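Recall the central idea of this unit: under ordinary conditions, the amino acid sequence of a chain determines the structure it adopts. In this exercise we apply that idea directly, starting from the sequence alone.
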Amino acid sequence: MSFFESHHPSPNFSPTPVHERLGVCFHHSVMSFEATVAHMLRPESRVSYHVLIDLDGSRASLVADEHIAWHAGVSTFQGRPNCNEFLLGVSFAGDTRATPLTDAQIASALDWLAPRWLRHDWTPAVMTDHRQIAPGRKDDLAPAEWARLLAAITGRFPAVV
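Accordingly, the structure predicted from this sequence is:
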């Protein structure tokens, strides 16, 4: 299944150094798709994702993979700080603590991941969410929604043993 993807280049990114693309950090935007895109396009917001996924699975590409989007803030993953530099930022429109992810959002995330998965030699171990890399500071995704998403990722991209 393929999902519509529009391009809305955000000014909120660091072009250097080149992004390491070691994995993905998932977020929820709390706001609607349209409001989130508008927020990401304002330089004063100083925040961005690589991609935003709407309820129907359509996506907005905001920052190119090779650039550092400003999505994680103060963060640590697998003992390494500054997650913006090595984790791509993917956000789901809405608030997963109020409304579960839609099947279309999960399918679109898997569709977005697919070409990157083999290219970057990823495993489920390099997938995380904002709540886990910034504990006590961020609460996205809701734990049950993270579990659903991780199960879908693991089912679609099983770890090679």
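The radius of gyration is 14 Å.
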